[in-house]
Amino acid sequence: MTTSPPAMSEARRYQQLRAHLAYLKLNEAAEALPRILDAARTERLSLTAALERLLEIEVESTEARKLAGRLRFACLPEPWSISDFDFAAQPGVDEKLIRDLATLRFLDDASNVLFVGPPGVGKTMLSVGLARAAVESGHRVYFTTAADLAARCHKAAIEGRWATCMRFFAGPRLLVIDELGYLPLPSDGASALFQVINQRYLKSSTILSTNVGIADWAGAFGDATVAAAMLDRLLHRAAVVGIDGPSYRLRAHQNHASTLRQAVNNRAS
Ligand code: ADP
Ligand code: MG
After folding, report:
1. Backbone conformation region of residue 3, classed left if phi is above 0, alpha if psi is from -120 to 50, else beta
2. What's the whole-model pTM score?
3. Long-range pairs of 251-258 with CB within 8 A, sequence gap ≥ 24
4. Ligand 1, pocket-test mutation among 83, 114, 125, most atoms within 8 A of CB
5. Which ligand 1 atom sits nearest the alpha carbon of residue 128?
6. Residue 1: per-residue pLDDT
7. Mean predicted confidence (pLDDT) in 112-136
């Protein structure tokens, strides 16, 4: 016998600890265990400190995994965040209001946000920015367009999955419905949209962006009663952000055009 009994049992205990961590699927902690034990020895960490350090590693990796899962689920079309938005370029936007929305307090009382404005003014960017903030602070978020939502509900109705589809759209703490009014909704689209809005009413927040001014909703839906009922739910508790500034897309385009023009002029002179 060369190994002394205490060393044996210590080695076995270490193996058992690794096995426990693996059984509990605390894989990051299992992997970090030798490193933390070494640190505990060399830095003379207390038992509490060593355990805290070990579990912190597992918590961080779990958080990262959950965040990635929520981001995947959310289907955000772009990686934008609120800090990417250039407020100086869009003086039509109330920066204070957007910063307030970015605190996500509106989720607490199931308030809605309505972005209204012509194409290119940043409605989608702001919606995505708020959605990303919500994902990052742990909320379940889903991004869709009005046309996609209508198509999905239509398909679900045909396939006898209407209730499941409605449950899906009721689920997220924040639902973003982009581009309402860009494409004409199919006949059953407006009523699907109404039902989604109605079942979320006072329960969870919806961000809706549209190029159709509120006064013109009746026309856009082809049904004044549905439009009025939907607006009633949406606006009961809502922040309405009207953006009527210049199109950022066109701005970039114009800058590009004027650079080209200048280059041509310089060459001519
Ligand atoms: P909308 O949804 O109103 O049509 P988008 O949000 O899609 O407009 O914006 C159009 C393009 O212009 C996007 O590439 C977006 O990143 C950019 N953009 C718009 N407004 C701003 C802004 N204020 N700061 C930075 N980029 C902007
Ligand atoms: Mg858009």
Report:
1. beta
2. 0.87
3. 251/89
4. 125
5. 6
6. 46
7. 97
